[in-house]
Design goal:
about 300 residues, alpha/beta, D-Maltodextrin-Binding Protein, domain 2, 3-stranded antiparallel sheet, about 45% helix
């Protein structure tokens, strides 16, 4: 029998009180009364045989030892919550399905299509979270991730979704009324808008287009594609962007092709889920739906690029 593991309800009340510095706020977070939180903290102090808070003028001030203890158990409580969520949803048709998605991909591509999946799967509740880089599924609530890169993810299945075609675009004001596109030499004198998490994208595009890469790494940097898009629309410079993410801006004339070259990236989009969830019906249904949507997207991209190509 483990004699040094206090009740988790008491630990949750203690950790929330230390984090908020208030019993009232801890009670609101935990959906308990202030009296219930205070009683569980008192019970925890009795269990541990030491004072955790100093009581001054109706205020609770955590002791240094209590603050350190709260920091350590906070991660443990989060892990218990994550594990419990996974257990509840495992193998069930319906319930919460947490999807980790690249921010701009999620807002511009996935969310506008998500209604179709939800209408055909009314018992599944989608929970979208933003993730830019690969992570450990054991330490996150996510059941499935949409990943751009190589099909390499420890202890996980990677299922191909689609390629990415990037094009050079800018605001119409940078092109001028008489000129349809810029030459590579003219582009070299323009500001190149950089994507922080893909620092070599300009170099790759210029290499395949036959241009100089001397200034490929120079220019203002933005972390998210959404910011890169806004910077290009604002006329800050030229950006290389996935065609499917900026189709709306191209159709509305907010952005135009700066050069006819298009580049198919070596990295691809994948749906990734842990091996232990290989038979999770919610994940399989969602990934199957993603594949069908990406197949349609690929057909549209091919048609658009053929129509607008050099």
């Amino acid at each position: 029998m483990r004699r040094t593991v206090p009740p988790t309800s008491s630990l949750a009340c203690f950790e929330a009180t230390v984090r908020h510095g208030s019993v009232t706020q801890a009670a609101e977070e935990l959906n308990l009364t202030q009296s219930a939180v205070s009683k569980r903290i008192t019970a925890l102090e009795a269990y541990l045989g030491r004072t955790l808070f100093l009581r001054k003028n109706r205020r609770l001030i955590a002791t240094p030892a209590a603050r350190e203890y709260a920091r350590e158990i906070s991660d443990i409580i989060n892990r218990i919550e994550i594990s419990t969520t996974k257990l509840i949803s495992y193998g069930r048709q319906g319930g919460v399905l947490t999807v980790a998605v690249l921010p701009t991909f999620g807002s511009r591509w996935l969310v506008p299509r998500l209604g179709g999946f939800l209408s055909s799967h009314p018992t599944i509740e989608i929970n979208l979270i933003s993730k830019i880089r690969p992570f450990d599924f054991d330490e996150e609530t996510a059941h499935v991730a949409i990943h751009f890169g190589q099909p390499q993810w420890p202890r996980a299945h990677c299922e191909y979704l689609m390629d990415e075609t990037v094009i050079a675009v800018c605001a119409p004001s940078l092109i001028g009324s008489k000129q349809r596109v810029l030459s590579l030499e003219e582009m070299s004198s323009q500001t190149l808008i950089q994507h922080t998490t893909r620092p070599h994208l300009w170099r790759e595009w210029l290499t395949q287009a036959g241009g100089s890469t001397g200034k490929a790494l120079a220019g203002p940097r933005f972390e998210y594609y959404s910011l890169v898009i806004e910077a290009a629309v604002a006329g800050i410079g030229i950006a290389v962007l996935p065609e499917f993410l900026i189709r709306n801006e191209l159709q509305r004339g907010l952005l135009v092709r700066a050069h006819p070259s298009a580049f198919v990236c070596s990295e691809k989009y994948f749906a990734v889920y842990p091996e232990k969830f290989a038979d999770n019906i919610n994940i399989l249904d969602f990934v199957g739906w993603l594949k069908s949507q990406c197949l349609q997207e690929t057909s549209v991209t091919d048609m658009v690029m053929t129509r607008s190509g050099p």
